[in-house]
Write a structure and sequence with these properties.
Layout: H1 6-21, E1 25-27, E2 37-39, H2 46-51, E3 54-64, E4 81-86, E5 97-103, E6 117-122, E7 131-136, E8 141-150, E9 153-157, E10 168-171, E11 175-185
Parallel strand pairs: 3-5
Antiparallel strand pairs: 1-2, 3-4, 5-6, 6-11, 7-8, 7-11, 8-9, 9-10
């Protein structure tokens, strides 16, 4: 009456093999038709093992996602707070990372909302289309926008269809890139 679905068994066996290789589980001596995976209680749990590989990123203040704001730059040795991340969460080295709290809503179409935390890799150059933290020299303001070069100028483009948010165009020598966004973290309240 019921037919076995071998398509479900094959992915399970592959997944079970991967868990065994990672030493998360052990196979018991049960019949081949009904493999049973058992947790090895002698070791720490996989959750504990994974949680021990973490690193801390300094939160250095706020960044505007809207009209640029004046900021007091903080050094990495004097952060306002820290955020702890799992080692494999980002595909970038942890040594040049910093975080900023987003203030404003000019980047909502890029899924960056007011109150989010952006993780940035410190770098002074970026490619067109990268989301960057840009310091506007002369205005002494910083903002979070998409970068686009246009001849001798740089255009900092918001990701919000509201006409209130217009691109900021400045001479390239008046815009300094402080970092490229590599991740966005949202804490739901």
């Amino acid at each position: 009456m019921f037919r076995r679905c071998w398509r479900a068994v094959i992915p399970f066996n592959k997944t079970a093999s991967r868990f065994k290789e990672a030493a998360f589980v052990e196979e018991t001596s049960t019949p081949q038709r009904a493999p049973e995976l058992e947790y090895d209680t002698a070791d720490e749990s996989p959750v504990e093992r994974a949680s021990s590989r973490r690193f801390r990123v300094p939160i250095l203040g706020k960044i505007a996602a809207g009209s640029p704001i004046a900021v007091n730059p903080r050094e990495a040795y004097d952060p306002e707070d820290w955020i702890e991340l799992a080692e494999g969460l980002l595909n970038v080295p942890a040594d040049n990372l910093f975080a900023l709290r987003v203030q404003g809503d000019s980047m909502i179409d890029a899924s960056v909302l007011d109150g989010d935390i952006v993780i940035l890799r410190h770098q002074e150059t970026a490619e067109d289309g990268d989301m960057v933290a840009a310091w506007i020299e002369g205005d002494e303001e910083t903002t979070l926008k998409f970068l686009q070069r246009e001849g001798p100028n740089v255009r900092l483009i918001p990701a919000n269809p509201n006409p209130e948010y217009q691109p900021i165009v400045r001479p390239a020598d008046k815009v300094r890139i402080n970092g490229k966004v590599v991740s966005v973290i949202r804490v739901l309240k």
